[in-house]
Amino acid sequence: MYVKHENHQKLGAFKVRGGVNLLAQMEPQDLKKGVSTASSGNHGQSIAYAANIFGARAFIAVPEIANPGKVESMRNLGAEVIHYGEHFGIADQYMRDLSKEKGYKYINAVEETQLYAGVGTYTLEIIEDLPEVDII
């Protein structure tokens, strides 16, 4: 048995791979507008981190119940964090509406295929390191 420690990633989670992959492929004009999303944790950190790397402003709506440590991390990574609503769905709708109004590139945490492609790169690393692997 082998273990891949994704908790040793820059943000302590595998999701950082998704944000970096997505923003790396984003059109420069979208990066200039600023990127936005809603999150209660790791996804928001991923987008904040990637935005910092690619010189984009990040706007992240979080529900009132969001983990304070995750929120602080997003802010420390340069994101403008907006507390809004009792739960994720309310924060998400708020950010969708705000993004339309302000022209931000909204990033849907569950519909962006490049997020999944980025996150999935850890499996490619496993296959490269252990080509004989049967189960991941």
Automatic annotation (TrEMBL):
Pfam annotation, one family: PALP
Keyword annotations from UniProtKB, A to Z: Lyase, Pyridoxal phosphate
Cofactor list: pyridoxal 5'-phosphate
Coiled coil residues, start to end: none
Domain Tryptophan synthase beta chain-like PALP: 2-135
SUPFAM superfamilies: Tryptophan synthase beta subunit-like PLP-dependent enzymes
One biological process term in Gene Ontology: L-serine catabolic process
A GO molecular function held by the record: threonine deaminase activity
Gene3D superfamilies hit by this protein: 3.40.50.1100
Keyword Lyase among record annotations: yes
Family designation: Belongs to the serine/threonine dehydratase family.
Name under which the protein is recorded: Tryptophan synthase beta chain-like PALP domain-containing protein
